[in-house]
Amino acid sequence: MDKNELLKALTPNLFDVVKILFTAVVILVVTKLQLVSDKLSALLIALPLTSILAMVWMRHEAKVADEAARIESIASHAYYTFWFVLPTMPMFLVIPWMLRKGHGFYFTLLVNAVLTALLFWLLVFLLKKFTSIQLM
Question: If you average pLDDT over residues 3-25, what whole number do you get?
Answer without folding.
Answer: 85
